[in-house]
User: Fold this.
Amino acid sequence: MFISVFDIFKIGIGPSSSHTMGPMTAALLFLKSLAKTGAKADRIRVSLHGSLAFTGKGHATDRAIILGLAGFTAETAEATEMATTLTEIHDRHRIAPQDFPPFRFDPNSDLIFDYGPSLPGHANGMCFSAFAENGSLLMQQTYYSIGGGFVVLAEDLNNSSLNESSTAGGPAVPYPFNTADEMLAAGKAADLSVAEMKRANELGFVNGRELDDRLDRVWRVMSDSIDRGLAADGILPGGLKLKRRAKELFRQLEKEMAVGDRHLLLVNEWLVQNAIAVSEENAAGGKIVTAPTNGAAGVIPAVISYYLAFYSGATPADVRTFLLVAAAIGGIIKHNGSISGAEVGCQGEIGSAAAMAAAGLCAVLGGTNEQIENSAEIALEHHLGMTCDPVNGLVQVPCIERNGFGAVKAVTAATLALRGDGSHLISLDKCIRTMYQTGLDMNDKYKETSRGGLAVNLVDC
Ligand code: SF4
Assistant:
């Protein structure tokens, strides 16, 4: 099953890929399905279930659903336009999306947070219903947000070709691999690197110029999110009164570097500062790239920025290589495990991001395919069992700092793998299987429901 680099790295808005971007996409898909039937809805009603109900308010799911119903997409949404539209909808209880007929929608009564049992297919369920003027039901659809911004209709949940890639149904790729073992075997047979195979596979869907342009855009959005995060201060939204820290960390580090103080912990501090910058932007609802999710969006940009800053001779082509290799690993994890915190805990988000970043860094530092696989395994292994317990349902604590630690572990994993010859005891495939099984065994209260862990142990002073 081919998962494109652009399925893994989606440009969108914070704070959550599964709770913000996915629901926004689902709402728009519902509008499109309704339009296809030719029926004109008088009113639309949406219910949120499972993790979407429990942590949806903190993750801005309500805002995302309304904006999706208003015709916005996460990639193109602009902050000012979204804010104006939301105010109008709250005032008028009516949505008039561009290209679709208008309908009534009162955010207070037509958006329901259902705290009962989750829907059967996945922890992140949404049910959309459209009603005629006389109150009769015109159409009803259930969607699941399955992590990383991917959404799937309930009836398509078990059809992996539909829920894994926007390129489903496209041409066969020259170097197909679903597992890390298959990736290594394909590389050996063709005498190609992971990046070369991934690139060749992507070229079945876009030409070389378009591929490079889109990869460069992904990095630009990542890099911009670092810059904005390092420049912004103030309090993050949501009620925790958490102060942004990236700007101050940057100021202190910059001052020390200016006087030549390149102390031993400089690399760690650089990584953490940049990962925090992106994560704070995400928490503030800013534009970021899912990598592979919003909650883990800071890890990969931090590691790429570290590579560009600390290795002379780094080029834009290296960044493309990094992204392609990271996406290859992300696709394997998604296919055989999960990248959803609601499904397997934070090991699936920060753990996956760290594995992807380690692989990308290992590749641009000249690692062999075996070393790349080894680096991803090391990074993922040392996130196994990590729970998801966001305080107040916000993607802030522990999420923001956790991105910094994921970035540090990724660099450590890459450098450790590069010191070896790629041979190791636990394969990446076995590690992914372990992560998935651990996630399934994990109590639901540790899977993005804010009903356990740090989320219930915060002492109010
Ligand atoms: S704890 Fe991890 S998985 Fe959970 S919301 Fe935060 S970053 Fe995502």
Notes: The chain has two domains: 17-163, 180-204+206-457. The beta strands are 11-13, 43-50, 94-95, 103-104, 111-114, 124-131, 137-147, 150-153, 287-289. Residues 295-296, 341, 346, 349-350, 388, 390, 395, 398-399, 402, 448 surround iron/sulfur cluster (CB under 6 Å). The mean pLDDT is 94.
